[in-house]
Specification:
It is a single chain. The chain is about 35% helix and about 15% strand. It is globular, with a radius of gyration of 26 Å. Helix 15 (about 435-450) packs parallel to helix 16 (about 465-480) and helix 19 crosses helix 20. The strands form 6 sheets. Strands 14, 17, 18, 19, 20, 22, 23 and 24 form an 8-stranded mixed β-sheet that branches. A 6-stranded parallel β-sheet has the order 12-9-7-6-3-13, with helices on both faces. The protein has a 4-stranded mixed β-sheet with strand order 1-2-21-11, sandwiched between helices. It contains 25 helices and 24 strands. It is α/β, with parallel strands linked by helices.
């Protein structure tokens, strides 16, 4: 049995496998939070200057610092902390990095009205545009922002710690092909930009329903709503079903409408933890877990019956941070005191009329009434239809048609979203996760090309395969030696996700981006008592002192095996921690203080040196221009290297969208047929190596695993 070494963020009750697992987890707990940067209710509260100017210690003084790093991988796992500190000091002296504050450009968007000759050129381009780009003057852009609930109406969080109101996301951070189901964050944001400058668009009408996406993505959308309002055009929200996350997005709009029967659940946020220790005890399974890092609680789910003090401390801190940000943002948006909003939430309000009385919504209207109101506002006759263009159609309008020409300087954008694996299965769709070999190919093409002045690695990942993460880390480091590399982190960049980010010269995160989780858990299951209960027997013939370390699940570890297990876990943790310290030019002792498996909110990570700047993709672009010596007022061309071409599974999945249940079923079948070498990070629970396809897999244990998964 091969051992699992992986970066991971568990989401739900773990599926049990009789294999050992070693997970370098960063338990990025998808906690509900509100903020202004990528994660509104998640980890970024739309706060003023503090969000744009991080703590002095979180930024390195000069960009050349990242390029002077040695690109050698840490081949010697036994290298001492002193050696790593000497490397960091040497690098710091060469580059002049002193962990001093740097005034990074904010990336704030300013609307520029098109007039004169440019206006004439735009009208001419629209005249000769392709038929599918034609939009009638006076049209209203309509977008329905909603995510499908993939499993149950209950929201699951990392490591089966259910942070209510959290999201895992069908609003993808990846670009999508025309056959892809769901919404694409880049296309949503681009539509807002185009609509602001399009003279044919009068305003935007948003239908906001329960969202199944991370708070970082919601914050990015919210930021674009605020930028769109600078154009002077109206933007109206309609919310038939609304929780904290949906309202956080809606309160950025000028007006909010809801039907009389709307569902509002503004009751607050919770975090829950599930433990299997008691279940295993009853059925005769003994998890033998070695945890490195006092906040690394993945193993706790298997061994404990209650939450540890350290885990409680971490989750409480994250939850307080998120809930506080939500209250701050909502109270500021609606012109109310924070205490008043909190008291209102604590009253348990469910009547829409009460929301109107308190000024939290503009009025109570059905959808047709809102449309009639818009017709009157735009001077449309009652017997005429309101001119509207939807998200899908408007996504086909090119920026060129609207005169939003890009500059000559090009910046490459590489998007890495989902769990990390090393290779791709033939049946695996491009949007299913981060495939290391594909990302590496893109990174090398950017490094070898002279076209690109800088690169942005857009990361939204809780981790995955440790080897894959390290290989990508190496390639990003090599790229950073030749040109500026900025890591822009969305909902979560923990464990393997942070592993990738820390190779960049500058790291940009949202206030509430789940960051860090530098820790290790290793263990195996002793099924001896279970086998005895059910009359099952297993005998192993082996050669070599430790040959049965991962193969003999029918007995507990011997003392020498347990010692080897512990040393292996310590070595894995030390490699991860030391490489993080090296990448961030931080003494190992200081990195140890912020590691230990703890997940940090983005702004807390910034104050501890894990992140350089707080903001979204726009700020990452501004910093990339700054690092590449491109004037801030000069336009650049963003070259998306992750733009997908439709594959057969994706086309079939898109077709299945029109049939109830087919889309979800097909995707699950395709996922189950997908195999991966080595370790696999699973978003729905603690990551275990898949048993399917392994020659020595135990069928009996697979049955037990399936049974426990259904509990």
């Amino acid at each position: 049995m091969s051992k699992l070494l992986l970066f991971h963020t568990a989401h739900s009750t773990p599926r049990i496998h009789p294999r050992t697992f070693t997970s370098i987890l960063s338990r990025p707990l998808l906690v509900p939070s509100l903020s202004k940067c990528h994660s509104p209710i998640s980890f970024f509260a739309s706060i003023s200057s503090p969000a744009l100017h991080p703590h002095p210690h979180l930024q390195r003084q000069n960009f050349s610092f990242s390029f002077s790093f040695s690109t050698r991988a840490f081949d010697d796992s036994s290298s001492s902390a002193e050696t790593q500190n000497e490397k960091a000091e040497k690098i710091g002296s060469q580059s002049g990095a002193k962990f001093e504050a740097e005034d990074y450009p904010s990336g704030e968007v300013e609307y520029e009205k098109i007039s004169g000759w440019r206006s004439f050129v735009v009208k001419f381009k629209m005249l000769i545009a392709f038929p599918w780009e034609r939009v009638r003057k006076g049209s209203v852009l309509t977008m329905k922002l909603r995510g499908q609930i993939t499993r149950t109406s209950r929201v699951r969080s990392v490591q089966d710690l259910k942070l209510a109101k959290m999201a895992s996301g069908l609003i993808s951070d990846q670009l999508k092909s025309r056959f892809s189901p769901g919404l694409s964050l880049p296309q949503i944001c681009e539509n807002f930009v185009k609509a602001a400058y399009d003279p044919r668009i009068s305003g935007v009408y948003l239908h906001i329903e329960p969202l199944n996406c991370g708070w970082g993505k919601v914050e990015e959308i919210r930021r674009h709503i605020l930028n769109f309002k600078k154009s002077g055009k109206f933007i109206i929200a309609y919310i038939p079903a609304c929780g904290e996350k949906e309202y956080y997005l809606a309160c950025a709009c000028e007006e909010i409408y809801a039907p009389p029967s709307a569902y509002f659940s503004l009751y607050g946020l919770t975090v829950q933890a599930s433990f299997l220790g008691g279940v295993f005890e009853k059925i005769g399974i003994e998890p033998q877990v070695q945890r490195i890092g006092k906040y690394k609680s993945a193993g706790d789910q298997l061994t404990r019956k209650t939450m540890s003090e350290e885990n409680c401390e971490m989750l409480t801190s994250l939850l307080d941070n998120i809930y506080g940000n939500w209250l701050d943002v909502v109270s500021s948006s609606k012109g109310k005191k924070r205490e008043d909003v909190e008291n209102f939430i604590n009253e348990g309000i469910y009547k829409v009329e009460k929301l109107k009385e308190e000024g939290l919504i503009t009025n109570i209207h059905y959808d047709d009434q809102v449309i009639s109101m818009l017709k009157e506002r735009l001077g449309v006759q009652k017997d005429k239809n309101l001119l509207m263009v939807d998200y899908r159609k408007y996504s086909k309008v090119r920026k060129w048609t609207l005169g939003l020409a890009a500059g000559r300087d090009q910046i490459a954008v590489i998007r890495a979203s989902g769990s990390i694996s090393r290779v791709r299965s033939p049946l695996n769709a491009p949007s299913s996760g981060i495939i290391a070999e594909q990302i590496i190919e893109k990174i090398r093409s950017v490094r070898e090309s002279k076209r690109y002045k800088a690169a942005i690695i857009r990361i939204d990942s809780p981790g995955g395969d440790a080897l894959a993460s390290d290989l990508m880390w190496r390639e990003i480091r090599l790229l950073a030696e030749s040109k500026p590399v900025i890591a822009s982190m969305s909902d979560v960049a923990a464990s393997g996700g942070y592993y990738m980010a820390m190779a960049a010269g500058t790291i940009v995160a949202e206030n509430l981006t789940l960051t860090g989780s530098i820790g290790v858990v290793t263990g195996k299951f002793n099924l001896g008592k279970l086998y005895e209960k059910i009359g099952f027997n297993k005998e192993v013939i082996s050669r070599g002192r430790y040959a049965e370390l991962f193969a003999a699940e029918q007995r507990p570890l011997r003392s020498d095996e347990a010692e080897l297990f512990a040393k292996s876990a310590q070595n894995a943790y030390k490699q991860f921690r030391d490489k993080a310290a090296f990448s961030r030019s931080m003494p190992v002792e200081k990195m140890e203080e912020v590691a230990q498996g703890r997940v940090w909110a983005g702004r807390d990570a910034a104050s501890r040196g894990l992140v350089d700047a707080i903001g979204g993709l726009s700020r990452a672009i501004a910093i990339a221009k700054h690092r590449a010596n491109i004037p801030q007022d000069r336009k650049v061309t963003l070259v998306e290297l992750s733009r997908p071409s439709p594959t057969l599974p994706e086309i079939l999945s898109g077709v299945g969208n029109s049939i109830v249940g087919v889309d979800r079923t097909l995707k699950e079948v395709l996922q189950d047929l997908t195999f991966s070498d080595g370790v696999q990070a699973r978003m729905d629970g603690i990551v275990f190596q898949r048993l399917e396809g392994l020659s020595n897999a135990t069928p009996l244990f697979s049955l037990i695993k399936d049974y426990l998964s259904s509990l």
